[in-house]
Amino acid sequence: MVMRETEAEILPGRRSRVLTYHGSFPGPTIRAKSGRRTVITQVNALSQDAVVHLHGGHVHPDHDGYPMDVIEPGAARTYRYPNRQPGATLWYHDHSHHTEAEMVFRGLSGAYLIEDPAERALRLPSGRHDVTLMMRDARFDDDGQLLFEMDDFRYRNTLLVNGRPQPFMEVSRRKYRLRLMNASNERYFKLGLDDGGELVQIASDGGLLPAPVPATSVELSPGERVDVVVDFGRYRVGTKIVLENTAFDSSEETRQVMRFDVVRGAADHSRVPDRLRPMHDLGPAAKEREVKFSLDMTIPAFVIDGKIFDHHRIDATVRRGETEIWTVRNEDPMGIPHNVHLHGTHFQVLERSDRPLEGHERGWKDTVGVPVGGHVRFRVRFDDYTGRYLYHCHLLDHSSMGMMAQLEVVE
Ligand SMILES: [Cu+2]
Q1: 8 A C-beta contact, residue 397 and residue 338
Q2: Does domain 127-265 have CATH number 2.60.40.420?
Q3: CATH 2.60.40.10 fits 2-116, yes or no
Q4: Tens of pLDDT, residues 187-238
């Protein structure tokens, strides 16, 4: 895959300069298979350093996209992804230190789907009825060029789904699996259908939930994913349904995410079984850990446990195979939202202080919101590899400014 700058028609009739994986905005969707290794050589034809991280991948630290493991312009790097994990909706994106927010904003992200033979027997909607919707916001200048300024989330008021502003999709009267991904730098989405129709949550960041959970809306902070099944069979041909964003900061401009136009009848042999995939128990915790997310007004900078990221420093040491309980607190004095993403594993959320857990938050997670002035608790275990992994806020402008820390998994 070649990373290069090119132009894309994002806004109708305008050519915008974008950074791409292989010429595509967003990057091409990679379809991997559970139990079968994927090897991707990334060639950097950009004019700056790049790093590729597989978000949600259980991969060796050498292939995880560590911020200092840069691919220099003109160079290449081969990433090996074992896919020894169940089917799930992952994504890949830039993680170059201090520049990841701008690189991702300009286009360096794409979907990475792990397909799982074990899912086939469930007969969930599949093939062209299994659709990935990568949602994000963007800001354009008067010439239709992407305009990036650090942390100016207030002005990123153009919503894009798979690189298109507020698009529509023609659907048949049947069930669809929609993989909803929040690929925004900083925007939160609260997604629902404008008629209040049911979304059935079936998978979270780490793959299938134990059982389907119906909802009328789902909340996603940056980096989170949820797979839902929507049964368009309940609508008449000719119906138009809007996927809406009703997050706390949504406005007139950012309310409509996309539209589904029901255009034809269809046979539907898919189903949503009562049981999907059992979740194993991580067992009792050998250690409890507290992590504090904040803003140090004297630096000023977003900090984790009072510090900005230093790749020479190990912030936490974790034993491989040992379960821990983490409490992550948002003590930001300005009341700024943050979330927490762990590389290298998935975790089980126990509670969040602001509200009951949503269905998908009860499944395997790699990213979760940290409530303003409150906390989130989760059980976590690193089973796969030893070595260094990051944990950080996934509001990418924050991590770019140093809101990251690293742990070392040891034997
Ligand atoms: Cu943050």
Answers
A1: no
A2: yes
A3: no
A4: 999 999 999 999 999 999 999 999 999 999 999 999 999 999 999 999 999 9
Please give the single-letter amino acid code of residue 393.
C
CA of 199 to the centre of ligand 1 (A): 28
Instruction: Kindly indicate whether the domain formed by 287-410 is annotated with CATH number 3.40.50.720.
Output: no
- Measured in Å, residue 144 CA sits from the centre of ligand 1 at 28
Ligand 1 center to residue 295 CA distance, Å?
A: 9
Whether the Cβ atoms of residue 61 and residue 389 lie closer than 8 Å to each other = yes
Measured CA distances, 194 to 42, 216, 254, 355 (Å)? 41, 10, 14, 23
Q: Which residues surround ligand 1, an ion (CB under 5 A)?
A: 338, 393, 395, 398
Please give the full DSSP string across 323-381, using - where no structure is assigned.
-EEEEEEE--TT---EEEEESS--EEEEEESSSPPPGGGGS-BSEEEE-TTSEEEEEE-
Q: How far is the CA of 51 from the centre of ligand 1 (A)?
A: 20
Query: pLDDT by residue (tens digit) across 109-162?
Result: 999 999 999 899 999 999 999 999 999 999 999 999 999 999 999 999 999 999
What spacing in Å lies between the alpha carbon of 369 and ligand 1's midpoint? 10
Pick from 325, 356, 352: which is nearest to 337 by CA? 352
The Å distance, Cα 399 to ligand 1 centre, comes to 7
- Of 205, 192, 283, 204, nearest to 241 (Cα)? 192
